[in-house]
Amino acid sequence: MHLTAPATRRTGIRDTDGMAVASFVLGLIGLLVFNVFLGPVAITLASVALWRGTHRRGRALLGLGLGVADLVVLLAFVQADDTVSWSF
After folding, report:
1. pLDDT value for 5
2. How far is C-alpha 85 from the geometric centre of its chain's CA atoms?
3. Contacts with 34 (C-beta within 8 Å, 6 or more apart), sequence order
4. Which of 13, 64, 69 is nearest to 42 (CA)?
5. Largest Cα–Cα distance of the chain, in whole Å?
6. CA gap 38, 35 in Å, rounded
7. Which residue has the higher pLDDT, 87 or 64?
8. What is the torsional sign of CA 65, 67, 70, 74?
9. What pTM was computed for the model?
């Protein structure tokens, strides 16, 4: 006896749309803080959303680009002062 209803296609689409938006938001926040963590998470969420066929393809692509930009910013700061931390 199953106590939960089976997932519908609508639920799956909404989940992938949420992943696309989350990747965009996390990638944007990652430019300012925690880019070592938020960059890879944004890249992963965007990749999964694109792979599953999200309707918010533009947001997923922006999230992917911002996740990569997070890692580029991190690399630039590491090259500048040989640390993983930000210094203002």
Report:
1. 47
2. 21
3. none
4. 64
5. 60
6. 5
7. 64
8. negative
9. 0.78
pLDDT given at position 78: 85
**Reduced 3-state DSSP string for the chain:** CCCCCCCCHHHHHHHHHHHHHHHHHHHHHHCCCCHHHHHHHHHHHHHHHHHHCCCCHHHHHHHHHHHHHHHHHHHHHHHHHCCCCCCC
* Residue 2 pLDDT grade (very low, low, confident, very high; cuts 50, 70, 90): low
Residue 48's nearest CA partner among 64, 26, 36 is: 64
Tell me the average pLDDT across 46-69: 92
